[in-house]
Amino acid sequence: MKSSRAQSATSLPRAPRDDASARMTKYFTMMVIRVICFVLMVAVTPYSWYTWLFGAGAMFLPYFAVVIANVAAGSAERAIAPERAIEASPTPRPPSDAPTAAVDETPRVIRLSESSRQPHAPRTPSDDA
Q1: Taking the complete model, does pTM exceed 0.90, yes or no?
Q2: What keywords would UniProt list here (predicted)?
Q3: Are 81 and 6 in contact (CB under 8 A)?
Q4: Is residue 51 part of a domain?
Q5: Residues 80/14, Cβ–Cβ less than 8 Å
């Protein structure tokens, strides 16, 4: 069922392409850290407690990288209701001595809404006959 509420552009989720790009960047970064841990585990001597730390990083980072990369971004938390509008500030007018005609100073708002009515069929030349 379609919602009757208007959709706010600020409440839309992140675009799928941008979301996938951000998740791939997180995964790639964690895999780079894993490779660094593996190299440090083998290269740093003398072997000690930090060797085990680098080994644990090289072993467990792939799991955490996949879990973190598979978490999709949620919807926007700071959504602004669509009926809320920026107030227009009145334009200051320079003072003049000449009398001016009364001008309607109320702001004009144009609201568009969709209707569920089907559009009319296009006219054909046989309709004119």
Answers
A1: no
A2: Membrane, Transmembrane, Transmembrane helix
A3: no
A4: yes
A5: no
Number of structural domains in the chain: 1
Cis peptide before 46 (omega within 30 of 0): yes
pLDDT of residue 39: 94
pLDDT tens-digit profile of 57-107? Answer: 999 999 999 998 888 766 555 555 555 556 666 666 666 665 555 666 676
Question: 36: burial class by Cβ within 10 Å (0-12, 13-18, 19+)?
Answer: middle
Has residue 83 been placed in a domain?
no
Is residue 40 in some structural domain? yes
Chain centre to alpha carbon of residue 128: 50
d(C-alpha 65, C-alpha 30), whole Å: 6
Is residue 50 assigned to a domain? yes
Q: What is the mean pLDDT of the chain?
A: 76
The number of C-alpha atoms within 13 Å of 53 and in the hemisphere containing its C-beta is 6
Range of the domain at 22: 10-69
